[in-house]
Specification:
Oligomer: single chain
Strand content: 25-35%
Number of helices: 5
CATH topology of the largest domain: 2,3-Dihydroxybiphenyl 1,2-Dioxygenase, domain 1
Length: 292
């Protein structure tokens, strides 16, 4: 079955681009691409042209997420499948493909209206990634950017949409407090996508957080120190997850959703993976930080 194979990029609408720089540049070490005043800011985290785009806007919101396929044939096969299944998919314009730095592009809403894009041919930059602070880099490659978590009005419907239309596979489930979360993968990364019911202030179709995975626990530890030095608010302290075994912490962005910065997640081999059900998201740490 033709399916997406990794998380490729994320676009965000933001009211104050400069307010994001302490997190994205100083802590995470992303490399900003050259930018003219008033233009969108593109950021690199590896050898791809960019992975994140911040668009100047009057309000903060999720703009889109891009899912990658391995071949151009897969792209057109998936387009035909979505069209046949009456998903309202449209192909990207030449200008949109240029701006995303991809060869092929299509878009459609998920069941809650959040814009999903599928692409082939993300541009590999001819210049090496130059991080904004001394880090060992990120676990990307075949595993893509990281993972993303959305809330859904009907979580079961939305999970089925991603499984049936885009080929995601189940990883496991966690139910705790008011949350019921389903985790899915499309490559060896434990999950590239998670779907939960509306909870913890995240409404249907809204982004709860995205995660990036460092190549070294020391990158995460030094980032944790920087967050405290810079006064960047945390939502969860350093801790370790039950399901993917990631050691991480969560920062609050100027838009209100979180960014998880972690290291050491387990990887999935579909030949022997067992889907499990957990009653808590953490083994230790990940303590909730309250803000007045």
């Amino acid at each position: 079955m033709t399916s997406v194979t990794r998380l490729g990029y994320i676009g965000l609408n933001v009211t104050d681009i400069a307010a994001w720089e302490p997190i994205l540049i100083q802590v995470l070490g992303f490399e900003p691409r050259p930018q003219q005043p008033g233009e969108a800011l593109q950021l690199r985290m590896d050898d791809r042209h960019h992975r994140f785009t911040l668009y100047p806007a009057e309000s903060n919101s999720f703009a889109y997420v891009g899912w990658e396929v391995d071949t151009r044939d897969d792209f057109f096969a998936l387009y035909d499948k979505l069209t046949k299944n009456q998903v309202p998919v449209v192909k990207g314009t030449s200008e949109e493909k240029r701006e995303r730095a991809v060869m092929e592009l299509m878009r459609f809403p998920n069941p809650d209206g959040a814009v999903q894009e599928i692409f082939f041919g993300g541009v590999e930059d001819n210049q090496p990634f130059r991080p904004s602070r001394a880090i060992s880099g990120y676990r990307t490659g075949e595993q893509g950017l990281g993972h993303i978590l959305f809330a859904a009005a009907d979580a079961e419907l939305t999970v089925n949409f991603y499984r049936e239309q885009l080929g995601f596979r189940l990883s496991d489930y966690i139910h705790w407090d008011d949350a019921q979360a389903t985790f899915m993968h499309c490559n060896p990364r434990h999950h590239s996508l998670a779907i939960t019911n509306p909870c913890f202030g995240t409404g249907p179709g809204e982004l709860n957080h995205f995660m990036v995975q460092a190549n070294s626990i020391d990158d995460v530890g030094r980032g944790y120190d920087l967050v405290q030095q810079l006064g960047i608010p945390l939502i969860l302290t350093l801790g370790k997850h039950t399901n993917d075994k990631m050691t991480s912490f969560y920062m609050i962005t100027p838009a209100g959703f979180a960014i998880e910065y972690g290291f050491g997640a387990c990887e999935i081999d579909d030949k022997n993976w067992e889907v499990k059900f957990y009653n808590a998201p953490k083994i230790w740490g990940h303590n909730l930080v309250t803000h007045d």
